[in-house]
Amino acid sequence: MEEQIKNIEEISIKEILNASNEKELNDIKVKYLGKKGELTAVLRGMKDLSKEQRPIIGGIVNKVRDNLENLISKKGKEFAELELKRKLEEEKIDVTLPSNKFIRGSKHPLNRVIEEIEDLFVSMGYDVIDGPELETDEFCFERLNLPKGHPARDMQDSFYITSEELLRTQTSAVQARVMVANQDKGPIRMICPGKTYRKEDDATHSHQFNQVEGLVIDKDITLAHLKGTLEVFMKKMLGEKTKLRFRPSYFPFTEPSYEVDVSCFKCGGSGCNLCKQTGWIELLGAGMVHPNVLKMNGYNPEEYGGFAFGTGLDRLAMFKYGITDMRYLYRNDVRFLKQFDQMDI
Ligand code: DAH
Hints:
The chain has 2 domains: 89 residues; 232 residues, BirA Bifunctional Protein, domain 2 (2-Layer Sandwich). Helices cover 41% and strands 19% of the residues. The chain has 12 helices and 10 strands. The protein has a 7-stranded mixed β-sheet, with helices on both faces. Bound molecules: 3,4-dihydroxyphenylalanine (DAH).
């Protein structure tokens, strides 16, 4: 019997060492050590041995089994290592290869201008407010001192949805909204950039455009505050050399009212085709908040005053980036928009 065990050991060791993969190794394990395996069969046959022989043969079989198990597990580890190595080799990444090119989008010039304005005014303590584009007649006109039938309503041809609702013609509507919403009727400092709509039917105007509105309400606000604020605003947007000119004008919600021109940044004021040889470009409407507007929206004009201004963002973006046709801003032509994709880097 000892002879038989030795034989099994010798042959099985050879087979284990020659196994060329995990599966073969497993088959060998079953063949010798499994339930019906050869070594197991020997153990089963021990019941026919004498009492003295049993522990001796049992000891030998156990030793051989331990030995085979160790060998199999060692060989198994080798296979596992080889497999891991193969996988690593297969999945190797060459980090020096050129990568795929990502196509980056670019910020639209209008959004750039809006973000720049927001950053500037937030740094001066203003809130940025959003208002509805579908506005009521009340907020767009009435609360801004433009009652029904007021001739100045003709300055802005409107898209009415119902007799009381329209697409807002001016971001000034948000002035009234903020004043009404401000419960404690304390000071206000806000800007509101956003879309506006007018029923324009000539070739040089778009039915939809963008404005930014500014409103400050506080005690002891003077025209000097308005002038200083617009100067900072325009210098930031168009360059430090920019000069401002205030021309008396009329808006129903401000008194006095002004149209504000900036010195032509193309010719510096000497006259060119952009400024039609005048040296100036009209850019903003502004003024001191009309006492009626304060009163109508819950502020006591004896106690509080304020200034307001509004400007078209499309023109501002055109001037800032030298865009010659406003329609470029609305065409989504990638060749145009792509020119802005390097600007943040
Ligand atoms: N809302 C005016 C417009 O669209 C612009 C404007 C003028 C806004 C005077 C103001 C202002 O806040 O005070 O033409």
